[in-house]
Amino acid sequence: EPEVTQTPSHQVTQMGQEVILRCVPISNHLYFYWYRQILGQKVEFLVSFYNNEISEKSEIFDDQFSVERPDGSNFTLKIRSTKLEDSAMYFCASSGDRSFTEAFFGQGTRLTVV
Amino acid sequence: AQSVSQHNHHVILSEAASLELGCNYSYGGTVNLFWYVQYPGQHLQLLLKYFSGDPLVKGIKGFEAEFIKSKFSFNLRKPSVQWSDTAEYFCAVSATSGTYKYIFGTGTRLKVLA
Known about the structure:
The structure holds two protein chains of two kinds. Chain A contains no helices and eleven strands. By secondary structure, chain A is mostly beta strands. In chain A, the strands form two sheets. In chain A, strands 2, 4, 5, 6, 9, 10 and 11 form a seven-stranded mixed β-sheet that branches. A four-stranded antiparallel β-sheet of chain A has the order 1-3-8-7, with no helix packed on it. The mean pLDDT of chain A is 92. Chain B starts with a strand and ends with a strand. The mean pLDDT of chain B is 92. Chain B has strands spanning 3-5, 10-14, 19-21, 24-26, 31-38, 44-50, 56-58, 64-68, 73-78, 87-95, 102-104, 108-113. The radius of gyration of chain B is 14 Å and the shape is globular. Helices cover 0% and strands 54% of the residues of chain B. Chain B is mainly β. In chain B, strands 2, 5, 6, 10, 11 and 12 form a six-stranded mixed β-sheet that branches. The interface between A and B is medium-sized, with 25 and 24 residues.
């Protein structure tokens, strides 16, 4: 069964450092998403990406965040200067069609900012 | 604003007990509805989905949910839970047009006692 894969599974970084979270969506999917889940809280939407551009972003997704699909298979989330409050589980998701299929989620990257 | 409410944050049941988890949403347009499950240490997995048609949908592992449009509800049910159903359950909503994002509820942590 096809799946969304994310690397690394866990990353620890110092405050102020840049991190890149990587995702390989399902190969024929067209819509890509990043969500995050702060420990004990709900899953929050960060950004959606379609046709090589951001479709929508939340207020969380400020100038410190960026996304890229550099090579047609990977989908990355970059945080330029991490803050303690960026510590969370970050989930990548992809879907083949926005209206008729569900989003498939990766296993997540747990980011810990110290 | 779009929102999803899950009223039960923690539920403890004995094996073979029946389960019903509430989910209500607030959205003015047509929606797709989902229940995802997150087993400890794992990623979000789709339990079931509603796009259109029969409002009673059946998912994996014996779960079902009923969409009641007049009540803006999509409650999850299982007639007899097992210890292996211990997990966190998330209700989610997406619009069928306009926005791409999923809105998640806060989740319900279910513990099934053997």
